[in-house]
Amino acid sequence: MRGAVLYGPRDVRFEEREDPKIIEPTDAIIRIAATCVCGSDLWPFRGIEQLSRPQPVGHEYVGIVEDIGSEVKNVGVGDFVVGSFVISDNTCEICRAGYQSRCVHGEFVAQTIGTQSELARIPLADGTLVATPGMPDEDLIPSLLAASDVLGTGWFGAAAAKTGPGKTVAVVGDGAVGLCAVLAAKQMGAERIIAMSRHSDRQKLAREFGATDIVTERGEEGVARIKDMTNGLGAHSVVEAVGTQEAFMQAVHATRPGGHMGFVGVNYEVHVSGLEIFFAQIHLLGGPAPVRRFLPELIDLIWNRRINPGKVFDLTLPLDQVAEGYRAMDERRAIKTLLRP
Amino acid sequence: MRGAVLYGPRDVRFEEREDPKIIEPTDAIIRIAATCVCGSDLWPFRGIEQLSRPQPVGHEYVGIVEDIGSEVKNVGVGDFVVGSFVISDNTCEICRAGYQSRCVHGEFVAQTIGTQSELARIPLADGTLVATPGMPDEDLIPSLLAASDVLGTGWFGAAAAKTGPGKTVAVVGDGAVGLCAVLAAKQMGAERIIAMSRHSDRQKLAREFGATDIVTERGEEGVARIKDMTNGLGAHSVVEAVGTQEAFMQAVHATRPGGHMGFVGVNYEVHVSGLEIFFAQIHLLGGPAPVRRFLPELIDLIWNRRINPGKVFDLTLPLDQVAEGYRAMDERRAIKTLLRP
User: Fold this and answer.
1) pLDDT tens, B175-208?
2) Which of A86, A289, B75, B270 is a plausible cystine mate for A153, CB 3.0–4.6 Å?
3) Are B93 and B128 contained in the same domain?
């Protein structure tokens, strides 16, 4: 089969890779129907996350099961499936508590598998994959693919920030994850949803996803605007979906005392002083999203056309042009690139 | 009246200060029945927190109301009262949400009033003070005084760490606050309470307060012991009651993914990398405890002799020996010093 391999900074190659095979009886092999490029893929692409060797890339995927190991029971050959970007058994104590992204048998798809490819071996298939009710209409595929990471991640951010009825929610970051957090806050019944964005196309999508207000200012100016809008208190719920120092502190400062901040931007370069988070006195929860927790609900919402997160994809390319997909996102010409084998 | 004033590092003087008077109609003047020295008083005493001028010190107090302003309704002259170390109106939106330590009209008693004195003016008396059901027996006074800060702070730490039935709780720090967090976890119904302590007298009190296990190792060795005791997962709930870098990271690493860490040690010198708290994937909540939220319940438990947090005081001195009280704690000769005017 063919798949994408990252050799070093800005060097993604689409090349022949060995066909994946069932290794463990809990594995499944899926034929990728659609995959995409993630904001977090840009970290190694830009060389900020170092690689020790050429690495297969990609961790978002939907596809059709081609083969299963002898112990796989929840998905069968021919099923259309959506999977999380973290492998999980979904039975350990951590999974049962809803933190499948920290499963005791967990591994990152990005680090070991690479789904920007024609086929992929998914370990612990029963605990990682969820089958759709049937073969999806073509127009549902982008949204189902979004559920695999960006929607699930925005959803987790919104859940970690305890969005809900009566709450004012601010979302820092207007990338695909931030936009999906807006959508999630809307679904969770938030009263007011403030998208922090300075790009008109993204503002438009944020409005469509449920944002009631747009704030274009950043950093402490952005914080001041949020305070102005909330009687000087700050938002009840803030989602940080960027991962930079400025965005992280903007989120900390925009959250009211006793409020909740969910942070889902991978924050490689963020450093926080203890006193900042002590005196902010806010609830903090971040990390790789336990997408598997949300998948059944998200698939149901998409299947019934109640949400359309697939709109975050504004560029679709054939998989063999994966390198251009990275470049378009790196240069901010695209919010998110969908790839079709 | 006489009171303690900190002039600089290790220079506490007991001297004549002006008698406090009603300034605002919401003020009360109380005659201090007992006060004490807090672990956090040691930060300016040691010069780690810098002072710009000589400052009255002390923020823990119980006493008898001597005078009230014209608008005070909830406490009257002659009442025995317990107050929080943070002034709060207890009516603003932040107070009503339970974060009275971040009241929009809040101020720190430590920074403006100083209760290591014979009298004190307490602003916003209705929102800050709680009267006991009557004049307390002498033996209850240390416990009521503890409610003013260390018990309330340990309680907040345990609440922030979501201790409760079925939970394994680890407490980092065996000072008065850590010991009170053990007591709180016990009251909240935790299944297993692990006190991290290497001092035999404090271990003894921790056991008395409800600890089921003692871990003497610190840092990553301490973390390994907690993991050993929890199927490799870490504790559900961890209370950090020290404030150093080592203790903070010990607490982060001892908390299982999806678990909760309450941090109540004032963490002047702690610096956290974003990635550490991202991949730890734990709920974090810290800050100055909203003691006022808990005071009615704590007073009730003490009044009915269901808890005896006053045992954290292992040194009692007359108020005029306040400087010796600081030294005894600084040199770890005492867990906590009670002062009687």
Assistant:
1) 999 999 999 999 999 999 999 999 999 999 999 9
2) A289
3) yes
CATH code of the domain in which A12 resides? 3.90.180.10
The verdict on A60 and A129 lying in the same domain is: yes
- The answer to whether the beta carbons of residues A115 and A284 sit under 8 Å apart is no
Is A274 in the same domain as A298? no
Summarised one tens digit per residue, pLDDT across range B74-96 is 999 999 999 999 999 999 999 99
Contact A275 B284 (CB under 8 A): no
Looking at residue A243, what is its pLDDT? 93
User: Residues of chain A whose pLDDT is less than 70?
Assistant: none
| Same-domain pairing of B80 and B187 | no
Say what the ipTM of the complex is.
0.95
Number of domains chain A contains: 2
B138 with B268, same domain? no
B281 SS3 class: coil
Is some CB atom of chain B closer than 8 A to the CB atom of A164? no
- Please say whether the dihedral angle defined by the alpha carbons of residues A320, A325, A327 and A333, taken in this order, is positive or negative: positive
Instruction: Give the one of B232, B267, B278 whose C-beta lies nearest to A286's C-beta.
Output: B278
Task: Identify the three-state secondary structure at position B196.
Answer: strand
Is residue B111 over pLDDT 80?
no
Question: What's A219's domain CATH number?
Answer: 3.40.50.720
The answer for residues whose C-beta is within 8 angstroms of residue B14's C-beta and 6 or more apart is B2, B3, B4, B319, B320, B321, B322, B323
pTM: 0.96
Confidence band of B51 (pLDDT split at 50, 70, 90): confident
Q: Is A148 helix (H, G, I), strand (E, B) or coil?
A: coil
**For residues B305 and B312, what is the distance between their CA atoms, to the nearest angstrom?**
15
- B274: nearest CB among A94, A270, A288: A270
Containing structural domain, residue B14: 2-149+290-340
Mapped onto helix, strand or coil, the DSSP state of residue B235 is strand
